[in-house]
Inverse folding.
């Protein structure tokens, strides 16, 4: 089996990441991930890239097999994951092109498998125990600092912290929903940040979300609200510099064996009942 240390899960408009890659398919007890995994190297680090929606964007957010995606990355040796994604801005100052590195998450999804520890036996394997992990701080503090420093190093002043609210989709928010999200003090709205972050934590992976604002959601009182074309257009305008930031962030992450963040110890005190890959 090929190996990798760092995973990058690319979102809408971000289907290729590395130029010189080895494509491999990985199967998991939860089924197939969104696509093949693409292995390459950045600054001497082995990186696995996975297009979150599959090549050609054939998977809507609620049908992405998040459990298979994270499991597949971990089975290759990945312990740190960067998750760029397109989001809507919930404040006027977070206009298109804003890069926000969230430190909090609100789950408003409805239908997604969001745990490995559901007491259901793995095919031909053991049965995971019921486990309640701490999730007060959903993102890796080390990964966040690497992402922030990488953006600043590319003259792209990021927003340090904020709350990502994740909706079920695939539709965008109504104006009322968007006003309500903003009134809660939440910062940006997306469709894929959950359960990606919590599943990463359950696998003891470091996970960092890099959100790129592509629109102002439905929050503006005028206009027609956000469209998918608008999201893709703004994302494509920024994908080049986001790629540079991700490269620099990958290079700045610690070696996996040197992790000393809360994510690395996520399972302390718990009997999982299963062997993680
Ligand atoms: Zn961590």
């Amino acid at each position: 089996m090929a190996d990798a240390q760092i995973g990058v899960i690319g979102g809408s408009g971000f289907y290729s990441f590395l130029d010189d890659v080895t494509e491999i398919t990985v199967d998991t007890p939860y089924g197939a991930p969104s696509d093949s995994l693409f292995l390459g190297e950045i600054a001497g680090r082995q990186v696995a890239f996975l297009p979150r929606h599959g090549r050609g964007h054939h998977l809507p957010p609620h049908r992405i097999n998040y459990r298979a995606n994270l499991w597949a990355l971990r089975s290759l040796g990945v312990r740190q994951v960067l998750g760029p994604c397109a989001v809507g801005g919930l404040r006027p100052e977070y206009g298109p092109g804003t890069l926000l590195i969230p430190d909090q998450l609100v789950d408003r999804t409805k239908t997604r498998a969001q745990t490995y520890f559901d007491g259901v036996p793995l095919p031909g394997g053991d049965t995971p125990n019921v486990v309640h992990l701490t999730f007060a701080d959903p993102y890796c503090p080390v990964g966040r600092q690497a992402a922030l420093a990488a953006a600043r190093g590319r003259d792209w002043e990021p927003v340090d912290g904020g709350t990502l609210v994740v909706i079920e989709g695939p539709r965008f928010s109504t104006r009322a929903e968007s006003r309500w999200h903003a009134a809660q003090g939440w910062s940006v709205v997306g469709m894929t940040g959950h359960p990606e972050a919590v599943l990463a934590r359950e696998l003891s992976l470091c996970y960092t979300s890099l959100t790129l604002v592509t629109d102002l959601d439905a929050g503006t009182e005028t206009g027609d609200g956000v469209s998918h074309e608008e999201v893709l257009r703004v994302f494509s305008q920024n994908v080049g510099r986001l790629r540079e930031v991700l490269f620099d962030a990958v290079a700045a992450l610690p070696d996996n064996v040197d992790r000393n963040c809360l994510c690395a110890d996520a399972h302390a005190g718990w009997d999982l009942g299963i062997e993680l890959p």
